[in-house]
Amino acid sequence: MWDMETLLILIDSSPFMVLFKDKQGRWIWMNQSFIKEMGLPPREEILGKSTQDLLPESKGLRREDREVITKGEPLLGLLRKVTLPSGRKRWHLTDKIPIKLSGDEVVGIAVFIRDVTEQREAQRKLERLNRVLEVIQNVNQLIVREKLGRNHLLNEICNILVNGQCYESVWIILLDPQRGDLLNIFSLTETKVEMKRCLSPQLISYLTPDSKDGFLDFKYEYLVRMGWQLSKRYTGKTFITSRLEHGEETYGIICALLPKDIELEKKEKDLFLTLADDIAYAMRKLDIRDELHREKVFWEKLFNVSPEGVILCSPDGRILRANNAFCRIFEFSTPEEVIGKNIDSVVANERTLEEARSLTEAAARGESVSAESVRQKANGTPIDVSILGVPIKIDENLAGIYAIYRDITDKKIYERAMKENIATLSHAWRQTIELLASVGELRDPYTAGHQKRVGGLAKFMAMKMELSPESVDAVEMSSLVHDVGKIKVPAEILSKPGPLDEVEYLLVKTHPQAGYNLLKDIDFPWPVAEIVLQHHERLDGSGYPQGLKGKEILQEARIIAVADVVEAMASDRPYRKALGIEAALKEIKRGCGTLFDEGAVDACLALFEEGLMIPLFEMYRT
């Protein structure tokens, strides 16, 4: 074992901040990271000082210290925004652990601090982008479903953007395409009268710049100087605007107010421009629908200027007409290059041909079809598209199929980015679980690795039982912290070399409930707290703490119960040497169907018979 001097040398070089205090709050030791971060003099000059001497604005910290000393229990995961003596503002994650030399007497406090400013800021930005992506998805879904017209659509878009907590206020201002005059205003937070009173022609002209992307961002104070008489509640906040432009058509502008303390990121700017494009596209789509309804004679012009790839097919799928956008999307030189050919043979490859034919056949039966799929360009390159096929009927007879193709490459990129964000969040949960597990094992060195071995065995058992991936994750994550409640059990009991007396055993039996209390308020994607609470329950009701029976016990907890018994018997304990794998497997066979879940026992036995688990146990012991 390392001596104290060696341990202090290691801690002194740690990137984490470490401070040891006595019961009176005097500093008895601190590492170099703490000294550097707090901007303090050399260690020898501050030993024996107290927190109030060197960090006077620390009343809350002293209250926490008194709580740890009084209760003798750690305070973990204290996240706070601090202002350092240098004036820098940082986020610190702090753990305060009581120092006990013998018995339950607390003689001091060990403080461990980690600077998580960058992680906090990255998380905040990621959450912001995810929220913006989510509302854009909702807007696009609204656009797809919209049937009541432009005014309803734009009012609902304002509602989604504000109630989705992306922006404090949103205004969609429609302008006459020729003269630039104000036509209409849509807002959830201001009335039309208020908006019209403050929108001067000069301000409208400024908000519709000739820049390539049509984007502007500016502070409230600048708008006031420009003559826009807005409420003072917007003081110091940032506005962003973009033209609503589709092709050569400008419908107006969309203006949004960023929440307080949100700085505009390039990714959010790009998403806002995409939102403006989608709104403009939706308005164009509504225009097309209305124009077709009002004037069938306008069909030809509409067909040619549509920004989407449009074709007209015969009922058997032969292309009769194709617009320039279709040729642009699929990279054909002219419409004549595809006219007369079967649409499925033109845009589908061998892998998607059957699916393409099924859509064409459905349209030929008079059904409207819509789908998102992969098609191929003229050179064989795959492209993500949305497909809308509409049967054209004359006197109830099918005359042809009107098909629209839209390039959704960007949309798929955003969807993949969202999946990556979800994977990142899943990784963060795993790190949280591992941190909780390591904190528990710091107090109980005799069972260090126990939770990992149980987690490895339980995971493979769940996989052997062919549980869903979500249930396998729940089993593994819960296994890694199933004994975290033992941090509430005195360390001298956990490490006692002899048998426990009745009172000590009763204290140990409180650890499932203690683990549940520690975990129940953490919003895991799995029922971790409930599984931890039930891992000592038995099928016949003889377990604890609730005496549950049979199916009352979660399946994940029944699996962990078997893995826990096997690992405990196969490993050394403070009060005995390991009993061996054979004895452990014999024990679960004896209790199969009465104490332990039959499926879990069968899976465990099969894994050991296949020789898969022995290397896993040895790996965690080393």
Structure at a glance:
48% of the residues lie in helices and 19% in strands.
Question: What do you see in this structure?
Answer:
The structure is a single chain. By secondary structure, this protein is of the alpha+beta class. The longest helix has 34 residues. The model has no long low-confidence stretch (mean pLDDT 84).
Quick tags:
about 625 residues, alpha+beta, Beta-Lactamase, 4 domains, 5-stranded antiparallel beta sheet, 15 strands, flat
CATH superfamily of the largest domain: Hypothetical protein af1432
How is the main sheet built? Answer: 5 strands, antiparallel
Question: Helix coverage percent of residues?
Answer: 40-55%
User: How many strands?
Assistant: 15
CATH class of the largest domain: Mainly Alpha
Mean pLDDT: 84
The CATH topology of the largest domain turns out to be: Hypothetical protein af1432
Number of helices: 26
| Large-scale geometry | flat
Q: What is the annotated CATH architecture of the largest domain?
A: Orthogonal Bundle
Assembly classification: single chain
Strands, helices and their partners?
Layout: H1 4-12, E1 17-22, E2 27-30, H2 32-38, H3 43-46, H4 51-54, H5 59-71, E3 75-83, E4 89-100, E5 106-115, H6 117-145, H7 150-163, E6 169-175, E7 182-187, H8 192-198, H9 201-207, E8 215-219, H10 220-226, E9 238-246, E10 249-257, H11 266-294, H12 299-305, E11 309-313, E12 319-322, H13 324-330, H14 343-347, H15 353-364, E13 369-376, E14 382-394, E15 397-407, H16 409-442, H17 450-464, H18 469-480, H19 491-494, H20 502-508, H21 511-519, H22 528-534, H23 555-570, H24 581-590, H25 598-609, H26 613-621
Helix pairs in contact: 6-7, 6-11, 17-18, 17-23, 17-25, 17-26, 18-22, 18-23, 21-22, 23-24
